[in-house]
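Table S2 (continued). Query chain:
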Amino acid sequence: VSWEVDPEISKTPGADEPLLKCNYSIGLGVLLGTTGKKAGGLGGVSNPITLTQVESFRVLELVTDSSELERVGLSRRRMTRLLTPQTQESPMFFHGTNTSAAGVQAAVDQMEEVGFEMFVYSFGSGFNMENTDPAYIAEIAETVKYANARGIEVGGYDLICLDRGDGGYGGNVGYQWDIVDPDTYNLGPHACFASGWYDKIHQIFLNFINMTGLSMVATDGPYGGSSCASTNHDHHTGLEDSIYWQNRLQGTFYKDLKELNIFINQPDWYFHQGGNKVSMGYNEYQYSLPRWEDLAISRQGMFDDTYHYIPTMGWMFLPLVQYHSGGAAAEFDPLSKHLPEYEWALAQYMGYGVAVCYRGPKPYDTSETKALVHKWVSFYNKYRDILTSDIVHVRRPDMQDVDAIIHVNPFITHRGLAMVFNPTDDVKITNLTLPLYYTGISTMAEVFQEGATPGVPYTLDRDFSISVPLIMGPRSITWFLVLSGD
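Corresponding output:
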């Protein structure tokens, strides 16, 4: 591909700036030639290439009526719901680490009892989606059948591109498919997603899904931006088009999965290609911190990210068993020994409406733990419509005072639901101002603290807010349901 100065530019009067117009043969800007020379292949050889078709990247521009952070964020979130509606799907999933048939069945039985909806073969559990052994596939298929019979869907984890090259921690997919570093011409740590590896992993996924009945994939390490200087990969000609084609093929990969109605977790922004969820506001090494610190940082991350994300398009993480490091101080297992932290985790994640990778062998270990899980899953299911609605931010967590958010939706009966957290060791007695403008309530609201009846009527102030009295014990959580009294 050759980029050349448009000869017409000097003939145009006025102050027109040169533009890149990749899909036009005439006009202002730079012309895209149909043939040309490319340099920088292996050995520095220049090769001719012929351009058959180019589809440019697409940019979506949202025009807003304000510079106010919350209103701009709500506009963006409304656009997300409109253009990528699959991001509103949000099954409650559990990342199982005991992936023996008996281990999965035990976890599935508990999930059915407390209301979880999807079992995921977790990373580091021994599950191998790239295993083509018929006996292994038959074993997974039987387990999926067992789970489906109990209303539980099943998904699995795989590392598909990043760190799948030379020296990558995920294992080399094949030297012939590794990226080639454009500076050193050495093989790199990632697989090239415009090589034959794309065809192989694409077929492996389709076969495994069709033969086992998986309905979800957690695709770690999708294509993340690496260039590749190889000149003998199947789907790109060299360095110059390697990023373009890897990005395009990763998008095609997800589109094909979505056509099979597969739920997709991916840690990159492939929503317009079919992805459902992306990681929300966390660093993996955070989960090696002591439990209360982990929960505090996670809540700060959710508070910040939900200015731009709808709650259901992100996921968080809860290390029931050790992840990376941290030992007994970081892991939540045994759950019955850490009930206050486990309940706080259930409440804050379900209260934010954000899905969590609860990663461990089973969701509960005693009848007391089971009751705790059932309590918060029931809360989530009862108020799911408002908990998965957009968030208006009330006070950011700083661990020095109460923090709060309120879900809002003017189109349903449950107009608002506020979650309030006191992470301190002190009793907090105060008044909390709740902004209700985006609930659609104009005059009168009825507020139910933790669902208690009868509700308390409030007349909205001129700024469409109400002031709610709070008395909260140390390390406690409360919530307020808001209905319209208009």
